[in-house]
Input
Amino acid sequence: MGKLSCVVVACAAGIVLAWPSAAQTNEALLQERLISPAVFELLLRRGATTPEQRRQVIGEACKTGQLGAGDCPQQRQRRD
Output
C-alpha cells in the first residue's frame, strides 16, 4: 500500500472512530437516544439516511423553526 493510501485509510478510520454515529442508521440513532423522535420523523419524511443528508435536513429545519432548540445544536446554550 502506498504512502498516500495509508494516510487516507488512517484518516477514514479516525473519522469513523471519532464519530461512530456517522455509520449508524436513523433507527439506531433513535434507539441510542442520539436523536429525538421529532428528528427521526423529520429524517424519515425527507429520506435523509447519510450523515451529510442528516446535517442538511436538520440545519434547514432549525433555520425555519421546524425543530426546537433542543434538537438544534447551534441553538443550544452552552453551560460553562
About this structure: The chain has one domain: 24-80. DSSP finds four helices and no strands in the chain. Helices lie at 3-18, 26-31, 37-46, 51-63.
